[in-house]
UniProtKB/TrEMBL annotation:
It comes from the Bacteria. The gene is yjhB. SUPFAM superfamilies: MFS general substrate transporter. The keyword Lipid metabolism does not apply. This is MFS transporter.
């Protein structure tokens, strides 16, 4: 890419979107990183920490499910900037609240509000970047957003290693507040501004369900993201509980597993974004990554006797293979017109996250009869089968002109 083209990608909007995703991922991954020390400090016995941890994660994901609808509709009705910075403000306040909880119910309330806020950032960021960049450079823009953003999870791990869990939550909230000052100088997407002149309804969430073609595209976009949160929500979040069953030769830290996984996701985000540009296809790249993730899950659940170091490397590989998240959200954004784009790009990833209660619920339901490994196989194979089936029927969108309405 020549210097002029590079400068067109590295603009202030892309930078702010990337930093917003950095704070988003920092806050989103705080709970898996501090789950064990925070629950221990609140008096939850070790034998109940899987159930309580899954419940708190479900509260957060339920907030993201509802928040995805709210912020998505707001993004198409009022603008992408309103969604971007409104969501940052809410999850920053919520994570500051998490720093002062004294009970599990209070913890659940603040995780729900944090999830409600976290729901809006990525969809708004990808929508803005997709609409301001030339159509042949969109993949680079979203790759940069993802690469910078997902380092937030790695930073969360480093902060979690050096500070108590309450301070870690406070740092996450403070980073979000600081980011709000970057709002100055960011302009709204010109494509969104043009919709004010069009006689078309903006942000009509229910219209996604009134046309079979739109509904099919929408559901397929959701299903192709399921493997990512199966890996993160089950295999990585509960890696300390899996390690003894898998006969790992030493103790495994959830925080370290998360850091390795999200380092891999960072690399995968860059790789998938650049591959989608180089190969001129989003669909095939997502398919390659989903297949690679399935192979990694097979190794995770079948190989025994790994050292903790090799286990962490495997977590890193799983992150790499599920690092198509930003490309997946870009695919969703490119499927729909400007009057529904923010709604789709915001709700799709959050409906995937909102499926986590179903994934964890299925995992916990099968655990008593199938054990940890058998239950993970059962739930994981369903997630991957749905993803492959959905991807098969999804139209290719690389290079599509996005200046259209539904």
């Amino acid at each position: 890419m020549n210097p002029t083209r590079l400068r067109s990608v590295l603009n202030l909007t892309v930078l702010v979107a990337a930093l917003g995703y950095f704070v988003d991922m920092f806050d989103l991954l705080l709970f898996p990183i501090v789950r064990q020390p925070s629950l221990t400090a609140l008096g939850v016995p070790p034998g109940l920490q899987i159930e309580v941890g899954a419940s708190l994660l479900n509260w957060q994901m339920a907030g993201m499910l509802l928040g995805g609808i709210f912020w998505g509709v707001l993004g198409d009705k009022k603008g992408r900037l309103s969604t971007l910075f409104g969501s940052i403000a809410l999850y920053s306040v919520a994570n500051l609240g998490n720093a002062f909880v004294q009970s599990v119910p209070a913890y659940a309330m603040w995780r729900f509000l944090a999830g409600l806020g976290l729901a809006g950032e990525l969809g708004a960021a990808v929508t803005m970047v997709s609409e301001i960049l030339p159509k042949d450079l969109r993949g680079y823009g979203t790759a940069i957003v993802a690469a910078v953003g997902i380092f937030g999870a790695v930073t969360a791990k480093l902060v979690g290693d050096f500070f108590p869990w309450r301070i870690t939550y406070a740092v996450g909230g403070g980073l979000g507040v600081a980011l709000l000052f970057l709002r100055v100088g960011i302009r709204e997407s010109f494509m969104f501004a043009k919709t004010h002149e069009a006689t078309v309804t903006r942000g009509d969430f229910l219209s996604l369900f009134t046309d079979w073609g739109r509904l099919g595209r929408y559901v397929r976009c959701i299903l192709i993201g399921l493997p990512t949160w199966f890996v993160v929500g089950i295999l990585i979040t509960f890696s300390p509980e899996f390690a003894p069953v898998l006969k790992v030769t030493g103790p495994v830290s959830a925080g370290t597993a998360v850091a390795f996984c999200y380092t891999g996701i960072t690399l995968g985000s860059v790789l998938s974004g650049f591959l989608s540009q180089a190969c001129h296809t989003r669909k095939k790249v997502v398919g390659w990554f989903v297949a690679g993730a399935l192979a990694g899950v097979g190794v995770y659940l079948t190989v025994r006797g790994l050292t903790p170091g090799l286990f962490y490397l495997l977590a890193g590989y799983l992150g790499l293979a599920t690092g198509y998240w930003a490309v997946f959200v870009t695919v969703a954004a490119e499927q729909f017109g400007t009057n529904l784009r923010a709604t789709v790009a915001t709700t799709v990833p959050n409906f995937v996250r909102g499926a986590v209660p179903l994934i964890t619920g299925g995992f916990l339901a099968f655990r008593s009869s199938l054990g940890l490994v058998g239950s993970a196989w059962a739930v994981g194979l369903v997630c991957f089968a749905l993803a492959f089936g959905a991807l098969w029927g999804l139209p290719e969108t690389h290079g599509r002109d996005l200046d259209f309405v539904e």
